[in-house]
Amino acid sequence: MKWALSGAMLGARELLELAPAAESSGYHSIAMPDSVFYPETVSADYPYTPDGKRMWNAEMPMPDPFIMMSAMAAVTERLEFSTNVLKLPLRDPLLTAKQVATMAVLSGNRIGIGVGVSWIPEEFTFTRTDMRTRGARTDEAIEIIKAVCAGNGPEWVEYHGKHYDFDRLMISPAPDRAVPIYVGGHSEPGLRRAARAGDGWISVNVPTDQLKVSIARLSDLRAEYGRSELPFEIDVSPTDITDLDGYRAIESAGATVCRVTPWHIYDVEQTTVGRIAALHRFADEVIARY
């Protein structure tokens, strides 16, 4: 099992202090969420809470994940970073591929990209993108990023799809190792996208029984697409596990990465000092013993 620290809802300066502490404690990576802005009025329910309400307020810090990942890479040597998840259809895929390629080179191939489709209608309206085509555009954007960041350094690429179309071009710098792309989502389309096109899958924060259902479905879908033998990360965030037996059980179910928020597990002050103490404690009590 690899251990990822959640970087959600933390300030930019604080994350720069947490990253070296996580690296020294044995964490594998830090996962950064993506929230472009907080609409005052939202015309859809949040899909991951019983009452449809978001778990954060408008003032909650949500640093740009690409800028934050680059900054944290600069103050660490081994720690890896990923998005959890980037709202890909809100962005132009070529511009995104340029950023991802630069981050991968800058960090020494310590970048992974987790992608999702977004659930907020206002995000699409205000960024002048089409919510109706978000799934199909995400599929094409994944292909474009994979082509640019295939791990062959700068090379000529072209793409001719329904939503994105361009002739031969080269983006430099480009990484000498392929950037992994992980797909988020528990819906059937999301699971199919992960099984068909992803290098892994990312869960939301849910109980173990829900994770096991999705993991089993992913196994079936990967077999359906003939991809069972390929490497595949399963990145989970169980809300009901805090002990070794629980983590071992979810690993037995297929999880390869566990995303944790130690300052929600232990009774500590919600300050930088308190959070660093919590991540060290989790490392001593779980990671080291695991």
Automatic annotation (TrEMBL):
EC number of this enzyme: 1.-.-.-
UniProt cross-references to InterPro entries, sorted A to Z: Diverse_substr_monoxygenases, Lucif-like_OxRdtase_Rv2161c, Luciferase-like_dom, Luciferase-like_sf
Pfam families: Bac_luciferase (PF00296)
Keywords attached to this entry: Oxidoreductase
GO molecular function per UniProt: oxidoreductase activity, acting on paired donors, with incorporation or reduction of molecular oxygen
Ranges where the Luciferase-like domain occurs: 11-239
PANTHER family assigned to the protein according to its UniProt record, in alphabetical order: ALKANESULFONATE MONOOXYGENASE-RELATED (PTHR30011), CONSERVED PROTEIN (PTHR30011:SF32)
Protein name stated in the entry: TIGR03619 family F420-dependent LLM class oxidoreductase
